[in-house]
Amino acid sequence: MHVLAFKELRAHYQVVAVCDVDEQRAIEVAGWLRGVRAVTDPAEIWTAADIDVVAICTPPGQHRLQVEAALRGGKDVICEKPLVASVREVEELAVIAAETGHTVMPVFQYRFGNGLQRLKALVDQGVAGRPYVANIDLSWRRGADYYAAPWRGRWDTELGGVLLGHAMHLLDMAVLVLGQPAAVWARVATLVNDIETDDSAAVTLRWADGSLATLSATLGSTVEISRHRFTFEHLTAESGIDPYTNSFEPWQFTATPGHEDRVADALAAHQPGTEDYIGQFERYAIARAAGEELPVTLESARLMLELVTALYVSSREDREVTLPLAADDPALGGLAP
Ligand SMILES: NC(=O)c1ccc[n+]([C@@H]2O[C@H](COP(=O)([O-])OP(=O)(O)OC[C@H]3O[C@@H](n4cnc5c(N)ncnc54)[C@H](O)[C@@H]3O)[C@@H](O)[C@H]2O)c1
Questions:
Q1: Whole-angstrom Cα distance, residue 87 to residue 99?
Q2: Which atom of ligand 1 is least distant from the CA of 40?
């Protein structure tokens, strides 16, 4: 996905090398563009003089050390989700980034769908009014073929289950609009696959202003959908249900009587941007060139890992967990049970 996005964004990126420890895979992906070298040793990437930015999309358990190696090699880094295994590890990377003067951008490409971006604009402009309730559904399907990859389904290599690896995208979309919740209560289960990590969850979230949300997530759904529904004082916003692009249009916005004109004007004024990986990587290239804040920051990944940590703690201890977690909470050091 990364290489295909960079290919579309040739005004901003020139891909010079593709690294995979599987040589055939490296050669295949390098062949998608002209003049790209295939590499099997990541150390060659960290030290290559012709590389400014490294995009890491290896199994999650490798991210922590690879991001550090790239930063210390003088590269800026884009890294897939989940960035690392714990809040502490995000904080370590922030220190290394500051030391080296280089940056890390976590991938949260779902943020850049135009439907979600329109809702965010309405909320930021104060048009939506007070939030009441959000409903988040993740009904996806992952079976034996998916878990055949040896790194999947294990705490030490995948770092988490449906909450960390899948629902994190949909939670991030909600947090983009509503901010970080103040408290959560979760029940997490392994119901679908014979794996160490979780594949199903039911969650409630509460914000400081009293507003609420629910998330239900499963990797056992025959019909795949993702859905967000946000009920605000002045409007209701409902996403489409395409499982992997539900942040894209079409979204349905329905104004509360008396607020139709303001909602319609704000919706009409919104300018759509590029979406998905292309949307994130285009904004990244522009922000990086201008020395501006990146479209997704390490702080976003830290907040999201803290939220997911709180969900796992809540389920294991069968209690509500408030956020932020205490600075000395041992769960900040890792999610594995
Ligand atoms: N943002 C999203 O929507 C999204 C979607 C899918 C996957 N991902 C993430 O992307 C990452 C990769 O997932 P995937 O499904 O492509 O996995 P995959 O197993 O299909 O591919 C991983 C590749 O990394 C290679 N690899 C392993 N160790 C390596 C190393 N040390 N150096 C170089 N290459 C190495 C493997 O040979 C393999 O080709 C994971 O972090 C995953 O969570 C994100």
A1: 19
A2: 33
Query: Domain limits of the chain?
Result: 2-108, 110-275
Q: Where are the alpha helices (DSSP H) in the chain?
A: 2-8, 23-30, 42-47, 63-72, 87-100, 114-124, 144-147, 155-158, 162, 168-178, 260-269, 276-290, 298-317
**Ligand 1 centre and the CA of 333: distance in Å?**
23
| pLDDT tens string 39-54 | 999 999 999 999 999 9
User: Tens digit of pLDDT for each residue in 154-178?
Assistant: 999 999 999 999 999 999 999 999 9
Please report the pLDDT score of residue 337 as a whole number: 87
2-108, superfamily in CATH? NAD(P)-binding Rossmann-like Domain (3.40.50.720)
Q: Is the pLDDT of residue 237 over 90?
A: yes
pLDDT at 107: 98
Please report, rounded to a whole number, the percentage of residues in the chain having pLDDT higher than 90: 99
Q: Does any ligand 1 atom lie closer than 6 A to the CB of residue 19? A: yes
Superfamily grouping for domain 110-275? Dihydrodipicolinate Reductase; domain 2 (3.30.360.10)
